[in-house]
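Query structure, 180 C-alpha cells:
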C-alpha cells in the first residue's frame, strides 16, 4: 500500500470522479485509485463503439445512448467494490438521474467528486488533447447538461485550478472524514 494511503469509510464505497470532458476526471481518478490501492475504472472504456463514433462526429449523446453505458459501468463498479471494498471510476455523471443510476448499481455506497473549472480553461484543455474522440465542440452541450450535485447527494466540488496531487489530497481528506 502506498505510504499516503489511508482507509476510506468502513463500508464498501465507490468513488466516482465526475464532470465534463477535459476537467481532469481520469487524472484524479488514477491518483485516487493509486492512493487507495484499489481498481480504477475509466468510464470512457465502457462506451459503445456507436456512442464513440457519435461523439467523434460532433453529436452529443442522448439519454438512450447513456443508459446502457451507465449500466455497464455501474455493474463493473459494483463488482470491483464487492471484490476490493473500494473502487474509483471516472465518469461524467452529468445529471442527477445518471448519478442515481450509479448509486443504485453500487447499493447506495458511492461518493461523487465533481471537478469544476471555467469554460475557457476546459476548452483550452480539450484543444490540447489530440486524438481523443471527444471534440471541443461538444463542451457547451455538456455544460448545459450538467446538473450540479444537490445538498442531499454524497458529493463534493473541487475546482481544478490546483495541481492534481493537491486535488487528490483534498479528496482523500473528504473521504476520510465521511465523504458528506
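Result returned for the query:
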Amino acid at each position: 500500500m502506498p505510504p499516503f494511503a489511508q482507509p476510506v469509510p468502513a463500508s464498501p464505497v465507490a468513488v466516482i470522479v465526475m464532470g465534463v470532458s477535459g476537467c481532469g476526471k481520469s487524472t484524479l481518478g488514477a491518483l485516487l485509485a493509486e492512493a487507495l490501492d484499489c481498481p480504477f475504472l475509466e468510464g470512457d472504456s465502457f462506451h459503445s463503439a456507436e456512442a464513440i463514433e457519435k461523439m467523434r462526429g460532433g453529436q452529443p449523446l442522448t439519454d438512450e445512448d447513456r443508459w446502457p453505458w451507465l449500466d455497464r459501468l455501474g455493474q463493473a463498479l459494483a463488482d470491483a467494490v464487492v471484490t476490493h471494498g473500494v473502487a474509483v471510476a471516472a465518469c461524467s455523471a452529468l445529471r442527477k438521474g445518471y448519478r442515481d443510476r450509479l448509486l443504485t448499481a453500487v447499493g447506495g455506497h458511492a461518493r461523487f467528486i465533481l471537478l469544476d473549472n471555467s469554460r475557457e480553461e476546459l476548452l483550452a484543455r480539450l484543444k490540447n488533447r489530440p486524438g481523443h474522440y471527444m471534440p471541443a465542440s461538444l463542451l457547451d452541450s455538456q455544460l448545459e447538461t450538467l446538473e450540479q450535485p444537490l445538498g442531499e447527494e454524497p458529493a463534493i466540488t473541487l475546482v481544478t485550478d490546483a495541481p492534481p496531487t493537491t486535488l487528490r489530497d483534498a479528496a482523500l481528506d473528504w473521504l476520510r472524514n465521511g465523504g458528506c
